[in-house]
Design a protein that fits this description.
It is a single chain. With 393 residues, the chain is an alpha/beta fold. 35% of the residues lie in helices and 25% in strands. The protein is built from 12 helices and 24 strands. Helix 4 (102-112) links the parallel strand 10 (97-100) and strand 11. Helix 5 packs across helix 7 (227-238), helix 5 packs across helix 9 and helix 6 (198-209) runs antiparallel to helix 7. The longest helix has 20 residues, at 369-388. The N and C termini lie far apart (51 Å). Bound molecules: MU-OXO-diiron. Residues 77, 79, 81-82, 144, 163, 219-220 line the site of MU-OXO-diiron.
């Protein structure tokens, strides 16, 4: 429990040990579930709650802060890592109302079975006075669910952004202390959670950037007392700009695809292209997602297994397809023993990507001189495409 500004407190929980979110997303640095209390002269508001696993921490913090009444629980997002403790808070504070938009209300009723008469529904841009503190609600849909919203505390110029601008990072600092560390975690978070909704995020970014903001208080990770740090990073990530980079994600069983991946990597480096090489047997999914944020080109590498792609490469293709990075070009390399449709299958798995597919290079058996020459030509082709869009001078 820490004070951000007079009568504005952070009272959430740090989850040092959590290593997986949604049974999918790695959390190498743990996470936090930030909740905030804003005390006005008349009313008290709690902004978001915590994951049910940390319910007791939240309850303890409310008691320690001497909060004997809560008038409003602002729910920015129905996902349970922020909303999951609302039923217990409602039980502890029977006079409290859940303040949210109509869509979030409906989702909270479905997900948490909160009684319908416990809600106060607010429209976009509505204000709620607490006495010397005024909450302004901003609908910001699709960061990253359809009901997501933010709150702007007018007098203190604080934006409570929930998942927007968040970072899965468990640390004891209230405010950002190590900018590179936080930006890495925030980019990972953006890549895994927000990137599929890039056009919506761009619009919402414009909406919040029009405000006079001194502090951004997200619901995961440290609080930004230099909002430009994260707003400018988001502007770059959601832009259409790509970098002179290739993400090469591969699996190899008997070294054929590995030799091809290594050869292509060297050929790209010779041509001045940055390569991020991922052996998918040991890759952290989050690292791959981060690399996908900016790279102009993605190359998938796979041997042929039971006539198709190796399941680990197919998984990477499915993940990339779901995350919808702004990648411009894609290709496939790999090998086969006697027959198969590996390259066609992988190409079919990335249909969401708005990419030009550069013809694959597939070797029969162990790659021969002609296959390595074909990889050199693939590197030339990637360079030419990067030049054509102006990212190589
Ligand atoms: Fe942090 Fe979408 O929940």
């Amino acid at each position: 429990m820490r004070q951000i500004k007079p009568n504005v407190f952070s009272i959430g929980a740090i989850d040092w040990d959590r290593r997986l979110f949604d049974e999918l997303i790695p959390l190498p640095e743990g996470t936090t579930y930030n909740a905030y209390v804003v005390k006005g002269s008349d009313k008290v508001a709690l902004l978001d709650t915590v994951d049910p696993a940390k319910n007791q921490t939240l309850m303890g913090n409310l008691v320690s802060l001497g909060i004997d009444k809560i008038d409003y629980i602002v729910a920015h997002h129905a996902e349970q890592d922020h909303s999951g403790s609302i039923p217990d808070v409602l039980m502890l504070y029977p006079g409290a109302k859940v303040v949210t938009n109509a869509k979030c209300r409906s989702m909270l009723i479905d997900l948490l079975h909160i009684e319908e008469d416990r809600f106060l529904v607010v429209e976009d841009n509505a204000t709620l006075p607490l006495g010397g503190k005024t909450l302004r609600f901003l609908n910001t849909p699709w960061v990253h669910w359809p009901e997501t919203m933010c709150t702007y505390l007018e007098e203190d110029k604080i934006l409570f952004s929930c998942d927007f601008f968040g970072a899965h990072l468990a640390e004891s600092n209230l405010f950002v202390a190590e900018e590179p560390l936080v930006l890495e975690a925030a980019k990972r978070y953006y890549a895994e959670i927000m990137m599929p909704f890039r056009p919506a995020i761009r619009k919402n970014l414009e909406k919040v950037d029009a405000l006079d903001i001194e502090i951004i208080a997200p619901s995961h990770g440290p609080v930004y007392d230099n909002p430009r740090l994260i707003v400018d990073a988001y502007k770059d990530w959601v832009s259409d700009n790509v970098k002179n980079e290739v993400v090469l994600a591969y699996v190899s069983m008997h070294e054929s695809t590995q030799k091809m991946a290594e050869h292509l990597t060297a050929a790209l480096i010779e041509r001045g292209i940055t390569v991020q090489l991922f052996n998918l047997t040991v890759t952290d999914l989050g690292k791959l997602a981060i690399a996908l944020v900016d790279a102009a080109t993605v190359v998938l590498g796979s041997p042929t297994v039971l006539t198709g792609a190796h399941p680990k490469t197919a998984y990477a293709a499915l993940v990339a397809n779901a995350l919808r990075p702004k990648t411009r070009f894609a290709s496939i390399i790999g090998s086969f023993g006697w027959a198969g449709k590996m390259a066609e299958q992988l190409a079919g798995l990335i249909g969401n990507l708005k990419v030009e597919v550069i013809p694959p290079v597939v070797a029969k058996g162990h790659p021969k001189d002609e296959d390595f020459l074909a990889l050199d030509k693939l590197a030339d082709e990637i360079l030419n495409r990067h030049k054509a869009i102006g990212i190589v001078t």
